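Practice record 12: protein with adenosine-5'-triphosphate.
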Amino acid sequence: MSTTHRLALIPGDGIGQEVIPPATAVLDAVGRRHGITFTYDTLDWSCERYAHEGAMMPADGLDRIAGHDAILLGAVGWPGVPDHVSLWGLLIPIRRRFAQYVNLRPIAVFDGVRSPLADASGVDFVVVRENSEGEYSEVGGRVGTDLALQEAVFTRTGVSRIADYAFALAEQRRKHVVSATKSNGIIHSMPFWDEIVAERAARHPDVAWRSEHIDALAAKLVLDPRSIDVIVASNLFGDILSDLAAAVAGSIGIAPSGNLNPEREFPSMFEPVHGSAPDIAGKDLANPLGAIWSAAMLLEHLGHAEAAEEVTAAMRAQLAEGSRTKDLGGDVGTTEFTAQFLARL
Ligand code: ATP
Ligand code: MG
């Protein structure tokens, strides 16, 4: 049985351009074994393009990738180009148009990776962040010179679907969900969030769950991260928790993410958590594992769980016993690391 997938590649800026080729090499290698063929359309959408053309992507950019099976992105952002350009000129339009309302961030501490925690072995959880509404809204504004108002937007549909995703995911894992809240201080939207999460939880009686205030949950992430399986959180809380979680796990260079349209009506987008890292760009220093793990998430999303597992297993083995890039205390460059990884795979 053979399958073909058409992927849109957006290497982007800086090390984004250095980590996408290793990721596609991994896809090709594992694909060959499983009868999966990938075809790629590589797009130059980036801050570099913005500097020449005045836009991160062409006006019909979203139409061009709407029919692809998935999007793999390296990183966008560059010194001198304000963050809101790459955000509003590329990332947010893609997330919105393709209803990528789930931001998924798996966190795992691999043997051989140093976490800032004294003992982080066995940490393995997932942050499910609401990616389409919540605190990051355009509702509000300035009133005169001394007042700013910013409204959070929570809809029944938006909260229900992210909660459903989290509970369904927990069913395939260790069957436990923590919902991040702050209903003692944020008295309108957060009780609404809590209420809907409780309603959706009732449909998954085999999943244990609890609500936890974001401040206490942040502390727990550091003090007792092994107790966590799936976290479901609003846009802002999820943003903060997933960066904290990536730090706990030990390397920004490894962390992957997915912007998912769970219904698979539109393409989902996978990208390493790290940015374009201008300080090391062009020096063959980038750790490609964040992009490679993101490619594994892409495989899983497209229904190739076994192939995805082979990639993460090779990551685990490589980190435990193989050489590593400098950010993880090793001494090989991106190119050499990728060659070794492919050989292992
Ligand atoms: P952004 O604003 O896009 O998030 P940033 O500057 O905040 O970018 P990164 O670009 O992720 O964050 O870089 C943070 C630090 O981590 C930098 O010192 C960078 O060199 C290092 N870093 C990030 N990604 C990698 C990687 N894949 N391999 C090695 N080092 C990395
Ligand atoms: Mg940053």
